[in-house]
Amino acid sequence: MTEQLERFQMVIGGKPVDALSGKTFESQNPYTGEPWAQVPDGGPEDIDAAVAAARAALDGEWGAMTGFARAALLRRLGDLVTQNAERLARLEVNDSGKLYREMIGQLNALGGWYHYYAGLADKIEGRQIPSPNPNYLVYTRREPVGVVGAITPWNSPLLLMTWKLAPALAAGCTVVVKPSEHSPVSSLGFAELFERAGFPAGVVNVVSGLSRETGARLAGHPGVDKVAFTGSTATGRAVAKAAGENINKVTLELGGKSPQVVFPDADLAAAANGIIAGVFAATGQTCMAGSRLIVHADVHDELIRLIAERASRIKLGDPNDADTEMGPVANRPQYEKVLGYLDKAKSEGATVAYGGAAESGLGGLFVQPTVLTGVTAESTVVREEVFGPVLAALTFTEEDEAIKLANDTPYGLAGAVWTKDVHRAHRVAAKIKAGSVWINAYRVVAPSVPFGGFKASGLGRENGLHAVDEYLEEKAIWVELSGGTRDPFTLG
Ligand code: NAD
Question: How many C-beta neighbours within 10 Å does residue 480 have?
Fold first, then answer.
């Protein structure tokens, strides 16, 4: 069996390497349920080696490069991503069970992130600041924060790695990436591109590891200057604490329980379609899943009917087939977690309008797209992130009540408002406490648009112009102009 597995290596200091311990682990294909790849089981000692390589690159050739030179490398990397989209998409599909039709689209767009941040790498400017004391010229420099630890989850590993990598490289940082133990392969496959793009050795290092200790070592490493994390809120708290111990910068992209608010004047067919996209696409395994439907009582039954009808036609199956619409859940612990939430919802009195169980005839870890009604604001399935294809519907009658329900969550990642009333659309969007709000749309992202969470959904923003700031330090430089001397015992 082991001989048939595709083998991957980590990249540390520009070289393909095995774990220092020589240990490996097998990555499972969630559709076949079989191991399909063998990857290095890197541990804390491999993280140490990668951080040392990243530091050496920062102190060496990379640290001496101009933003113009970094931009050229980022552009080349973006082109290589596009040229290798097909292979990288297949790696993601085999490792995480995501649909090929979604992944090829994502990989074809991914190069755009490197091109966007290439456009910023040579525009990182300081300021000249007026000083109240005319004897001083004051200006600022914006310098790379240093070595970045980037820790990613199992859903969309390459997209979420790119959201960290592209601005970090534009800023002039070096990076150690630690992908999830559940889907490490695509990041290892991607790592082969850095040398081909011409990046100096050690600028980007990728370490895979089975134990959560590997990520913990990176988050708390004394040689790391900033941690960029995407994952669960629970792990994010541990990462923030570890970074805090080192007084390090940290950005966190965490979980969500995002509301889809539907008013009675909405185009219900469009809303049903957007709600399907929000919670059943990617088998609901997206941080921005629109998993709470908040619908006006007058249109509740009709909207649920439309959603259930479309859900009943969702084609579950092989994620590699072009006509498959929903693949399996990405790994067994997650599969069991989703089924546990369905049992809990039923025991708490929810009505299953559609789905509600595992789909056993298909071999892999399939769960039916599920629509639950008859829940309350206190139901577990309304309060907690399921991270699976499960929609829970609440009703309202007044706009204020809808806003209150939308914000009645510890999370604040995303949300949507469905209405044809332009006044109400903007009024309600302004009141939803979330980092992204779509009006009559859902699940749209772009390199140029900031993404991140309010409240327990995160800290800082990825994407957009200001994501580069998350990877920069600002230094103020004071230049004495008079050439004279001053009273040494006064300030300024
Ligand atoms: P997770 O928190 O279990 O793991 C995320 C990563 O952290 C993995 O690489 C893991 O190995 C590593 N890790 C584990 N323990 C660690 C520690 N103590 N210190 C440092 N790193 C550690 O999350 P997951 O199960 O892989 O992903 C699912 C979660 O991610 C969901 O809750 C989802 O909402 C969230 N998510 C958020 C976004 C976003 O942008 N906000 C995007 C995707 C996923």
Answer: 12
Cβ pair 291, 279 in contact under 8 A: yes
Q: What are phi and psi of 157, to 5 degrees?
A: -60, -40
Atom of ligand 1 lying closest to residue 457 CA? 41
51-83: per-residue pLDDT in tens?
A: 999 999 999 999 999 999 999 999 999 999 999
Give me the residues paired with residue 476 across strands.
140
Q: Let me know if 234 is exposed, middle or buried by CB neighbors in 10 A (0-12, 13-18, 19+).
A: exposed
- Statement: residue 1 has pLDDT above 70: no
Rounded distance from Cα 437 to ligand 1 centre (Å): 23
Active site annotation includes 359: no
pLDDT in tens, 201-233: 999 999 999 999 999 999 999 999 999 999 999
Q: Rg (Cα) of the chain, in Å, rounded?
A: 24
Q: Per-residue pLDDT for 3 more than 70?
A: no
What pTM does this model have? 0.96
* Domains contained in the chain, CATH given: 2-254+453-476 (3.40.605.10), 259-439 (3.40.309.10)
Cα(291)–Cα(396) distance, integer angstroms:
16
CB atoms within 10 A of CB 245: 11
Cβ–ligand 1 distance for 157 under 6 Å, the answer no
235 C-alpha vs ligand 1 centroid, how far in Å? Answer: 6
